[in-house]
Amino acid sequence: MICSKCNKRAVFSYPDLCKKHFISYFENNVKRTITKYNLITKKDRVVIACSGGKDSLTVLYLVNKFFHNVDAMAIDEGIRNYRPSTLRDLKNFCSKNKINLKIYSFKKELGMPLDVMRNKSNLVPCTVCGTFRRYLLNSKAKGYTKIATGHNMDDEVQSLLMNLLRNNLELSARLGPKTGLIKDKRFVQRVKPLYFCTEKEVMAYSILKNFPGKFVECPNAALSYRMFIRDMLNDYEMKYKGTKRNIMNNFIKTLPSIKKEFKTEQLPNYCEVCSQPSHGKICRACQLLETLKNKALNKKQAFISV
Ligand code: SF4
Prior knowledge:
It is a single chain. This protein is α/β, with parallel strands linked by helices and 306 residues long. Strand 6 and strand 7 form a beta hairpin. The protein is globular and about 65 Å long. Bound molecules: iron/sulfur cluster (SF4). The site of iron/sulfur cluster has 9 residues, from helix 6.
């Protein structure tokens, strides 16, 4: 296979490109997304939400390369045999690239790690994890104007399909390169510079750049609905090349009208417990935490009375 831009051996197919041309194709794609959708400007104070996986290291590296002086933030959910090694990679990467890194853990901030929470809740671990991760990211990003995440095209197409199959168009209205429907001083805007990059492209870029990371998957991932959708989409993509990009291009065209339909001028409430923006009087994270703590207490009381 030969590079479509020169005569060198291609390291990537569809598009067929050699190492040098693939790296510049990828970086230009990210740069174009940032500029076209006005994701980040020089005036922004940006923090990158990182897990230590290939997507977050790629977005961290590129946003730091384009804008300098970005910070990294990681949430340690407390997942045995998984998170410690990705955090180790992230720490090494940040120290090598002189990037300031802050890590907040479920255990310290919420009183228990995800491995304990999952035994106390009937919800799938990803639902609990996602709720608290979003909550901590927003509350700890105070002082920043943007949170950049490593979401790629595959992630977005999976979310779209999940929302479609669950008949939840309002959730799709919050998607896009810039998330959310309302502006509020306590919501830090989230942006996705890798929005138009496929997972395969991000993986190839991170390998060609020698980023650390073992490409391990969270042990809870197999239990999630998203994984079922991911496998189905990958099957389609194998049989019908371009499926994911077609879904994405179609969504991007309809996104402005979906956003308009669900846009509300009404500002959110503020949670009576933690003061974070919330749909109801008490936010989802505080409600969930209360339930988990009560379960822990009931278990302890049952144990004492035996
Ligand atoms: Fe959390 Fe689920 Fe992702 Fe694991 S796969 S880190 S549990 S959201």
